[in-house]
Amino acid sequence: MPSPARVAVLASGGGSNLQALVDRFHGRPDAAARVELVVGGRAGIGALERAARAGIDQVVLDGRALGAVVFAQRLLEELEVHGIDLVVLAGWLQLVPAEVVARFRGRMLNVHPALLPAFGGHGMYGGRVHRAVIASGARVSGATVHLVDDRYDEGRIIAQWPVPVLPGDTPETLAARVLAVEHRVLPLAVEAVASGISEEVFADPAAFELVSAPAPADASILAILCVPSSPDAPAGD
Ligand code: GRF
C-alpha cells in the first residue's frame, strides 16, 4: 500500500475545513492522505486548536509580522522539514509567496466559497463573496476546489459542488450552506489529487438533502474532478 500523501493545511480561521480533512483521513490505515502540518496565519485561531486536538504539528507564520522574505523562507522550510507533498489552503487569508506557489505547482489546492470563475479574485473572500452572490441575483452558488497559480482564484478547477441560493438568504445563511458542501468536496478533491485520479464525476443526489432543495435534473453536475496528469501540468488553460 503506498504511504499517504503528506498534507500541510494553511488556515487563518476556525479550521472547519481542516477538521473535515482530519475526519476523513486520520485513523484510517488505507487513507490516501494525512495532515502532517497546520500553518496558522496568526496565534489563537480555531484551526490551531483543532490541530492540537488532533495531535498535528503546527506553526504560526504571520506574513505581516515577519515580512515577505522571511515569511517565504520560513514557510518553505516548514514544508520541507515536514516532507510535505500537497498544500491545502483552507480559509488562508495571506498571499502565498511566488516561490512557494512555484515549488508546489500542481500540488497546492484552495477551497473557495463560490462557483469560480464567478465571484473570485482579489478581495473576494468570506462574507464579501456571499454578499456579491446574493446581490447578483444568482440562483446557484457553491464550493470550488482549484489549483493555486500566480493569479487569485484562477488556477485549474478540480472540483465544484453547487448549492441553491434561496429566497430570503442572508450572507450568513448562504455561507453556512456553502460551508457544508466545502466539507464534503474538499476531502474528495484532496483524496483524488493524492491518489492521482485523472478524472472522476461524482453523482451523489444525497448531497442536496443537505440544503432541503430539489436535486437538479442532472445530478452528475454535483461535483466534477479534473486532475492534471502531471504535477507540472500548467494550471488553468
Ligand atoms: C471557508 O468558507 C473557505 O472557503 C474560505 O474561508 C472559510 C474557512 O472556513 N476561504 P474554515 O476556517 O475552514 O472553517
Q: What's the SSE blueprint?
A:
Layout: E1 5-11, H1 16-25, E2 33-40, H2 46-54, E3 57-60, H3 63-66, H4 68-81, E4 86-89, H5 98-103, E5 108-112, H6 127-136, E6 140-147, E7 157-164, H7 171-194, E8 199-202, E9 223-226
Parallel strand pairs: 1-2, 1-4, 2-3, 4-5
Antiparallel strand pairs: 5-6, 6-7, 8-9
Helix pairs in contact: 1-2, 1-7, 6-7
The site of 5-O-phosphono-beta-D-ribofuranosylamine has 15 residues, from helix 1, strand 5 and helix 7.
Description:
This protein has two domains: 104 residues, Formyl transferase, N-terminal domain (Rossmann fold); 127 residues, Formyl transferase, N-terminal domain (Rossmann fold), CATH 3.40.50. With 237 residues, the protein is α/β, with parallel strands linked by helices. Helices cover 32% and strands 22% of the residues. The strands form two sheets. Strands 3-2-1-4-5-6-7 form a seven-stranded mixed β-sheet, with helices on both faces. Strands 8-9 form a two-stranded antiparallel sheet. The chain binds 5-O-phosphono-beta-D-ribofuranosylamine. The site of 5-O-phosphono-beta-D-ribofuranosylamine has 15 residues, from α1, β5 and α7.
